[in-house]
Amino acid sequence: MKVTVLGAGAVGGWLAAGLARGGAAVSILARGATLEALRRNGLVFLDGERRDVHRLPAGDDPGALAAPDILLLGLKGHDLPAALPLIARALAPHTLVAAVQNGIPWWFFQGGFGGPAAGLTLAGVDPGGALARAIPAERVIGGVAHVGARVEAPGVVRLMKQDRMLFGDPAGRHGAALAGLVATLAAGGVNAEAVPDIRMEIWLKLWGNSNMNPLSALCRADMQAMLEDPGVAGLVVAMMREMAAVGDAIGLPLAQSIEERLVVTRRLGAFRTSMLQDLEAGRRLELGPILGALVELAAHCRVEAPTLLGIHGLVRLLVRGG
Known about the structure:
Layout: E1 2-6, H1 10-21, E2 25-29, H2 32-41, E3 43-47, E4 50-54, E5 58-59, E6 70-73, H3 80-90, E7 96-99, H4 130-134, E8 140-153, E9 156-168, H5 175-187, E10 192-194, H6 198-219, H7 223-228, H8 230-250, H9 258-267, H10 274-281, H11 287-301, H12 306-321
Parallel strand pairs: 1-2, 1-6, 2-5, 3-9, 6-7, 7-8, 9-10
Antiparallel strand pairs: 3-4, 8-9
């Protein structure tokens, strides 16, 4: 299996290392300081006291790398539209795209999704629908990463906590490729599994991310501190209720109760969300895919979501003021 990874950040680097350990022929598309570090030192993967170095082909020109069977997108969702020309150059006619982003991905409502959101394109995810036209859902393997990892330096990724890496085939066309990807990652030490309904897994993760991420940016606190504060915890519950109502409207009802989902969140302890880490590092926040898309979706379905709308507005002003 030939895999090109675009975006050797925390999740992309973790998966690239796992694929390489599992026997895949892995190459990395990168640029700037990350590309220089990969060429000089290789991809360095840290897990506790363990230190692995993977000397992988790396470049900024897809034409100089082997045509992949799978292009794994490790970039954050809000970076994908700008990267589309590079993505298009990396795609051979047979290449499938494994998308591992937080929030609602561009393909979510394409490829046979029914109900009032069928075929919907969200401006906060895919402005003008360019991603959906270039990479239809029929070409996608969707992914959900339940992992804590961080970039310690360009080309250096540290795994902090591994739970599960879920993949699914939204169009039901690529069972063999899905099985091969999961098996390769599992052989490389990644707790990967194939799931029958990847959209529901994405929606369930977003049920936690859509509140904890933006609220952590507003109050600059970890998840444990937020849930211990009655006022912040009340906002979390209100946002979860509104998202659950949106899910009911589009045909994605949540089987968990809010309290059951919060039990899972509390187990993470004093975890600092990705959005808080991005804010502190001066990076652009992935607000559109994680919360802006929900606000758009609620408006499309005519579901009242004042708390989602208000928190989205506050974070937009925070970004603008920064």
